[in-house]
Design brief:
Structural class: alpha/beta
Strand order of the largest sheet: 1-2-3-4-5-6-7-8
Order of helices and strands: EHEHEHEHEHHEHEHEHHH
Shape: globular
């Protein structure tokens, strides 16, 4: 039996050569892809779902990225609610908090958009996929803007207040936190999804988490076209590279790539059982 992978987070609407990208994914045994529906802003949230309706191996999300939180108007949120109700839209996301870029919206605006979208996901009873980026490595001006605020602390507090009571799960996309943040995410019902950055030599903290995370709560992803793994760093990433990240995580965990592929695929379809039937 051939190894089959799921790319649990990729931005497919960014490719001009999508047929080739999908062919490469198939050749690498990446059989299922979750296309993230954020586009370049709320007016493009639908693009991933359009792809999901056109390609049976693609499923979609829809959401307003925290960098676009200032554009989460009542009209945009109403449109998100419509998209989220579509059966091929598996989750709301990526949503969350980003205290990294200087031009990002102010913290209260980001938090309000995050809470509003959690409410939409709860209403349609679907998981959320989370983006969280701190200001730890930001430029000095961004550090000054966001001050002592900690994106992880703020994120987990908002999840505890607005999401945990729903008893719905979610994904910590491109997990880049430490063990304590991983433990708190797992306790809140989230899966940890590892992207190409787990393969980078300096990513020892992420690697430590990937090594010991519960086997039934891990996923792999590309975040394509970003974060190409290993020796491909700096190049355009593709869903086909899911296998490269998966092989690295498998080695960390002391298991075969086939075992890791089987486990993460099963995890994906447990998280999104409706996808199995489509």
């Amino acid at each position: 039996m051939k190894t089959m992978w799921v790319d649990s987070h990729c931005h497919l609407d960014s490719y001009d050569d999508l047929p080739d990208v999908l062919a490469n994914a198939r050749a690498a045994q990446v059989k299922t892809l979750l296309a993230i529906g954020i586009g370049e802003g709320p007016e493009e949230m639908h693009r991933a779902l359009d792809l999901a309706h056109a390609h049976p191996q693609i499923f979609a999300t829809a959401g307003i990225h925290p960098q676009e939180a200032h554009r989460s108007t009542p009209e945009a949120l109403a449109r998100l609610a419509e998209l989220a109700a579509d059966p091929r839209c598996l989750a709301v996301g990526e949503i969350g908090l980003d205290y990294y870029h200087l031009e990002n919206p102010e913290i209260p605006i980001q938090q309000a958009a995050f809470v509003a979208q959690m409410k939409i996901a709860a209403a349609v009873r679907k998981p959320i996929t989370i983006h969280c980026r701190t200001s730890e490595l930001a430029i000095p001006a961004a550090k000054a803007k966001f001050g002592s605020a900690d994106a992880w602390e703020d994120l987990l507090a908002l999840i505890a207040e607005h999401w945990t009571p729903t008893a719905l799960p979610g994904i910590m996309h491109c997990f880049s936190g430490n063990q304590q943040q991983a433990d708190r995410s797992l306790a809140a019902g989230f899966y940890l999804s590892f992207a190409g950055n787990v393969t980078y030599p300096k990513s020892t903290t992420i690697q430590d988490v990937a090594r010991v995370a519960p086997a039934d709560r891990i996923l792999v992803e590309t975040d394509a076209p970003f974060l190409a793994p290993g020796g491909l760093r700096g190049q355009r990433c593709e869903p086909a590279y899911t296998a490269l990240t998966g092989e690295f995580v498998a080695e960390l965990r002391g298991i075969s790539a086939e075992q890791l592929a089987e486990r993460t695929t099963e995890n994906f379809f447990r998280l999104f059982p409706s996808a199995r039937a489509m």
